[in-house]
Design brief:
The protein has two domains: 109 residues, no CATH class; 58 residues, no CATH class. It has seven helices and three strands. It has 182 residues and is of the alpha+beta class. The chain is elongated. A hairpin with a 6-residue loop joins β1 and β2. α2 packs antiparallel against α3. It holds the Pfam family COMM_HN. It comes from Salarias fasciatus (Jewelled blenny). GO terms for molecular function: NF-kappaB binding. InterPro entries: COMM, COMMD4/6/7/8. This is COMM domain containing 7.
């Protein structure tokens, strides 16, 4: 089975999970997709996502464990679609191949913005300090405070003066570019 969101061969467990998903009624399926998109738009709310899945399982008389496992497989589709920048037609083709359809278009823009936001936040520069001097007088030490996820990390670099001024120039260019977008 060739799918756009996953260039590799789809594992049997994922195919099996999508087959199980196809047994849901349209109303059940729509509710699950609603829960899924709510989580994708607010990924920090994993606890709420798990709670909603447990509530859904209880309402439908299902076991929560297998439902959560099924949703892990289902999550591969939107995550792969965002990573590979798939069009709505490619996503629709994948869903049809897997036996389902869903209105992706209304959520596609939000998911794309979220993906860009997460990409830009991977190594966010929080602070910058530099000291001139050091052992050889022609060197400077640069300390960057970088936010990686929920924690910050100090990154130290030693630069020659020409390297430092080149770095400073590039940072000023980046700042000017970012100001154009805001």
């Amino acid at each position: 089975m060739k799918l756009h969101f996953n260039r590799d061969v789809l594992p049997d467990s994922v195919s099996s999970d999508f087959s199980k998903l196809n047994k849901f009624s349209e109303q059940q399926f729509q509710r699950l997709i609603e829960i899924l998109f709510q989580f994708l738009l607010e990924p920090k709310e994993a606890e709420r996502f798990m709670q909603q899945l447990s509530e859904f399982a209880a309402e439908q008389g299902l076991s929560a464990g297998p439902l959560k496992s099924l949703m892990k497989s289902v999550l591969l589709l939107p995550q792969g679609a965002v990573k590979k920048n798939l069009t709505s037609e490619q996503i629709r083709d994948d869903l049809l191949t897997l036996g389902r359809t869903v209105s992706w278009g209304e959520n596609c823009g939000s998911l794309s913005r979220l993906a860009v936001g997460q990409t830009l936040m991977v190594n966010q520069l929080v602070d910058l300090e530099w000291k001139f001097g050091g052992e050889p007088a022609q060197r400077s030490e640069l300390k960057l405070v970088v936010r990686r996820g929920s924690s910050t990390e100090n990154v130290y670099m030693e630069l020659t003066l020409p390297q430092f001024y080149n770095f400073l120039h590039e940072m000023e260019r980046a700042k000017a570019s970012m100001e154009c977008f805001s």
